[in-house]
């Protein structure tokens, strides 16, 4: 049995709109009403958002006409079969989030409801990946997509690649955010301050909004745009699909998913509104949507200067500020929340902080915290000990909620990786006891190259799977980065896979057990991109190049596809899917070599079968396809621009895909030559 809390997806108190209510079945025993019911297990604890599954609740003290709730909703069809068994039809889930876990409780006609524990909940999932880290529980695991399997990676091919409009400001069109998808539309923010809604079927922009840019004065680097990953959810009052995004102009926006129109905006922190110039606020954190609320973290741009940080709780429907948690005492600044807020099964929230300003004894800096989900009152906190702190002991990545079983007892856990290279796992409601376990993912951060542990972990119900963003030695061999599967109760590695580059962004997993791990950068030339691994064994299944740029945003599994957003300003988004073989021999490409900076018409040939329209993608982010014309069943002409950033000597793959997903490919068949 996979308990929903075990999947690390947060239970929520759902708004009443859209939820049906009713009375439970009337058959069953009559002698248990005076004792509190106890739920011990569910015959199934995972299913689609449409509901409809018939499951059995096991426990004790169930009385006739007992009421069954999934979250706050009363199940319409339940039958108390005995004092220890109830059969119930799972109600449908409105689209409040990409995935949620609802606590399943039983209430007799008189007396209290059954107590909630980490394993008595039911996880709903949807085919779409519509929020950062796959939902409020930060599982980074979507069980719905199963098309991309361990044994089918050879058929995984790029089917389209998106070129953004030329920027009109000092920002760039490369990507640091993760793509999210809902109902066939991709939502993606770029570093020129625009957020785009892009149709998966037509590959065209449906709308775009400019949300501001921030030009640093004291921080390193160039202009910053939209780094926050958007969240797509239904408005709790109107039911209209809405896009929530933390913007560089200092506001949290709610945008119409259909048109991009602003429904409301709520103040977070205006850059330049305090002393220190424009660097004092920046929208690093991604919004978390749950319980009819939006949670957002507050941080500065790069510590120069620090600001009064913490998290805000905002009404999802109106944008009204509901609560604020100030992460530090009133006489200091820091305690930055660089990441996103997690939500526990009982609706309380978790947050990890950084920036102690050289004093690790300032409360709640460089710490993992649990707050009341409504008031944001601090419930519990744990801080990195001085003996393990480094000069920059931030928790840069988001916390992950999971379940461990110390001494056989299901225990709600929160885990996060620190820039000191250590992943810490603490009990959500007993943090003062210290970590249940800790595991070193790699060496501490060493400088500005971002070789640091910032990844949020996957929680798939079996392993905590974390990406390592710094040097690590595995079985006597040194690697620049890694992906490691850890036992949730002991922290001991089940497997460890070394990689040539830094996994700074967060990996993701689909329902077929395939992990996509992004490599942000690497000292080894030609190794940035996404590595595909088996979730069971850690075996490397494949590599997707995004050269010459790396990947920070989380790759996402949505329905049948894998979407990868890279740091290429020319080609920041590519979609992959499992294709059908359509060739007896490799695709022919002429000329076989193209010059840096040139525009060339390639001729693609096959023994027959080309149909129009067709899409052509050249691997990596070095050659932009501008036009495809199918001349005959055996010939297609393709106009391409070889980017000025293309790497001389690179040998690239070419793929032609038809609408029915028949694909024609060749490997290392297009070489990059120097400009004349």
Your description of this structure?
By secondary structure, the chain is mostly beta strands. 0% of the residues lie in helices and 40% in strands. The strands form 13 sheets. A 5-stranded mixed beta sheet has the order 2-9-8-4-5, with no helix packed on it.
How are the strands of the largest sheet arranged?
2-9-8-4-5
Question: How does the overall form come out from the CA principal axes?
Answer: globular
Q: How much helicity do the residues have?
A: under 10%
Q: What's the N-to-C terminus distance?
A: 63 Å
Kindly name the structural category: mainly beta
Stretches where pLDDT is under 50 for at least 5 consecutive residues are 1-31
Summarize model confidence as the mean pLDDT: 89
Tell me the layout of helices and strands.
Elements: E1 38-42, E2 46-48, E3 54-60, E4 67-70, E5 73-74, E6 78-82, E7 85-89, E8 99-107, E9 121-125, E10 141-142, E11 156-162, E12 180-182, E13 185-189, E14 194-199, E15 205-210, E16 231-234, E17 241-246, E18 251-256, E19 262-267, E20 288-290, E21 293-298, E22 310-315, E23 321-326, E24 342-343, E25 349-352, E26 367-371, E27 378-383, E28 400-404, E29 411-417, E30 422-427, E31 437-440, E32 458-459, E33 464-468, E34 472-474, E35 477-479, E36 481-486, E37 493-499, E38 508-510, E39 514-519, E40 529-534, E41 540-545, E42 556-558, E43 561-565, E44 573-578, E45 580-581, E46 588-590, E47 593-595, E48 599-605, E49 615-618, E50 623-632, E51 635-642, E52 651-657, E53 662-673
Parallel strand pairs: 2-9, 10-38, 45-53, 47-53
Antiparallel strand pairs: 1-3, 3-7, 4-5, 4-8, 6-7, 8-9, 11-44, 12-13, 13-14, 14-15, 16-17, 17-18, 18-19, 20-21, 21-22, 22-23, 24-25, 25-26, 26-27, 28-29, 29-30, 30-31, 32-33, 33-36, 34-35, 36-37, 38-39, 39-40, 40-41, 42-43, 43-44, 46-48, 48-51, 49-52, 50-51, 52-53
């Amino acid at each position: 049995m996979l308990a929903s809390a075990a999947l690390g997806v947060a239970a929520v108190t759902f708004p009443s709109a859209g939820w049906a209510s009713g009375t439970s079945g009337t058959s069953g025993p009559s002698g248990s009403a005076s004792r509190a019911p106890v739920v011990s297990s569910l015959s199934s604890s995972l299913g689609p958002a449409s509901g409809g599954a018939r499951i059995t609740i096991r426990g004790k003290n169930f009385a006739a006409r007992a009421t069954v709730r999934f979250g706050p909703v009363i199940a319409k069809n339940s039958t108390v079969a005995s004092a220890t068994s109830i059969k119930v039809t799972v109600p449908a889930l409105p689209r409040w989030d990409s995935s949620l876990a609802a606590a399943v409780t039983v209430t007799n006609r008189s007396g209290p409801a059954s107590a909630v524990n980490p394993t008595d909940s039911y996880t709903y999932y949807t085919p779409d990946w519509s929020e950062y880290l796959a939902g409020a529980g930060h599982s980074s695991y979507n069980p719905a997509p199963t098309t991309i399997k361990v044994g089918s990676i050879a058929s995984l091919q790029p089917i389209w690649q998106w070129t953004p409009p030329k920027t009109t400001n000092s920002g760039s069109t490369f990507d640091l955010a993760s793509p999210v998808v809902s109902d066939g539309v991709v939502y993606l923010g770029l570093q020129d301050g625009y957020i785009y809604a892009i149709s998966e079927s037509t590959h065209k922009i449906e709308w775009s909004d400019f949300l501001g840019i921030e030009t640093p004065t004291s921080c390193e680097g160039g202009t910053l745009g939209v780094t926050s990953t958007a969240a797509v959810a239904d408005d709790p009052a109107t039911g209209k699909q809405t896009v929530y995004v933390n913007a560089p102009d200092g506001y949290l926006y709610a945008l119409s998913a259909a048109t991009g129109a602003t429904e409301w905006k709520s103040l977070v922190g205006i850059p330049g509104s305090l002393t220190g110039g424009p660097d004092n606020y920046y929208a690093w954190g991604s919004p978390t949507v749950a319980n009819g609320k939006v949670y957002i973290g507050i941080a500065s741009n790069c510590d120069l200067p620090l600001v009064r940080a913490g998290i805000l709780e905002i009404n999802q429907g109106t944008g009204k500020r509901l609560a604020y948690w100030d992460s530090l005492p009133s006489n200091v600044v820091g305690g930055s929340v660089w990441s996103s807020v997690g939500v526990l099964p009982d609706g309380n929230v978790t947050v990890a902080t950084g920036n102690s300003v050289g004093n690790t004894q300032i409360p709640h800096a460089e710490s993992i915290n649990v707050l009341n989900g409504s008031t944001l009152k601090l419930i519990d906190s744990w801080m990195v000990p001085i003996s393990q702190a480094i000069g920059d002991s931030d928790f840069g990545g988001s916390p992950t909620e999971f379940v461990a079983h110390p001494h056989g007892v299901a225990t709600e856990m929160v885990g996060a990786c620190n820039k000191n290279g250590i992943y810490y796992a603490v009990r959500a409601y007993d943090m003062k006891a210290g970590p249940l376990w800790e595991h070193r993912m790699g060496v501490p951060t060493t400088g500005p190259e971002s070789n640091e542990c910032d990844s949020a972990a996957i929680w798939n119900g079996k392993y905590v799977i974390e990406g390592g963003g710094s040097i690590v030695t595995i079985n006597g061999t040194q690697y620049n980065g890694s992906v490691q599967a850890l036992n949730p109760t002991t922290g001991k590695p089940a497997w460890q896979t070394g990689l040539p580059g830094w996994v700074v962004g967060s990996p993701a997993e689909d329902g077929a057990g395939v992990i996509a791990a992004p490599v942000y950068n690497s000292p080894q030339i030609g190794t940035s991109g996404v590595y595909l691994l088996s979730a069971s064994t850690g075996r490397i299944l494949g590599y997707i190049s995004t050269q010459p740029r790396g990947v920070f945003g989380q790759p996402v599994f949505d329905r049948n596809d894998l979407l990868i957003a890279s740091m290429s300003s020319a080609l920041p988004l590519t979609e992959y899917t499992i294709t059908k073989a359509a060739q007896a021999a490799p695709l022919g490409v002429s000329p076989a070599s193209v010059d840096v900076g040139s525009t060339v018409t390639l001729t693609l040939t096959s023994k027959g079968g080309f149909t129009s329209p067709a899409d052509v993608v050249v691997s990596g982010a070095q050659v932009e396809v501008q036009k495809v014309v199918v001349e005959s069943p055996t010939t297609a002409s393709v106009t391409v621009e070889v980017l000025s950033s293309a790497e001389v000597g690179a040998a690239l793959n070419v793929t032609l895909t038809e609408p029915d997903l028949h694909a024609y490919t060749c490997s290392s068949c297009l070489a990059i030559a120097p400009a004349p």
